[in-house]
Amino acid sequence: MGAYGSAYLDDPFFRHSNSQVARYEKLQAEYDGLLHQKERRQIQADAIGNCLTALEELDLLQIAFTDSLWNTVVDHVTVYADDRLVFHFKNSAEIPCPI
């Protein structure tokens, strides 16, 4: 480093500058993470919107609710003593329903 290296590293301005750079890099990494999270949530929101649009279109088709449709979709329903039902679907989804 030579004669000036040690004095340069001990300089308060240099130490302050380094701490600001470290702070900036930390904040930049946090910002990048939040931006990635925002993009991921936007993709999820778009997917949910597409599903809702598809469901709205299903209403236009006027699907008849039949025993066959029920048996195709629902695996079983559990009835609990505390006045609630849990619908268990064949795709392993569950929907609780208070009665």
Task: Draw up the topology in text.
Blueprint: H1 3-10, H2 12-61, H3 67-73, E1 74-80, E2 84-89, E3 94-98
Antiparallel strand pairs: 1-2, 2-3
Biggest sheet character:
3 strands, antiparallel
- Binned, the helix content reads 55-70%
> Could you say which structural class the secondary elements and strand pairing correspond to?
alpha+beta
- Cα(first) to Cα(last) distance is 78 Å
Q: Please tally the β strands and state the result.
A: 3
Count helical runs: 3
Global shape: elongated
Strand content: 15-25%
Number of domains: 2
Gyration radius from CA atoms, angstroms: 30 Å
Are there runs of 5+ residues with pLDDT below 50, and where? Answer: none
Mean pLDDT over the full residue set: 84
Q: What is the spatial order of strands in the main beta sheet?
A: 1-2-3
Q: What is the string of helix and strand elements?
A: HHHEEE
Can you describe this structure?
The protein is of the alpha+beta class and 99 residues long. The chain has 2 domains: 1-62; 64-99, no CATH class. Helices cover 66% and strands 18% of the residues. It has 3 helices and 3 strands; from the N terminus they run H-H-H-E-E-E. The protein has a 3-stranded antiparallel β-sheet. A hairpin with a 3-residue loop joins strand 1 and strand 2. The chain starts with a helix and ends with a strand.
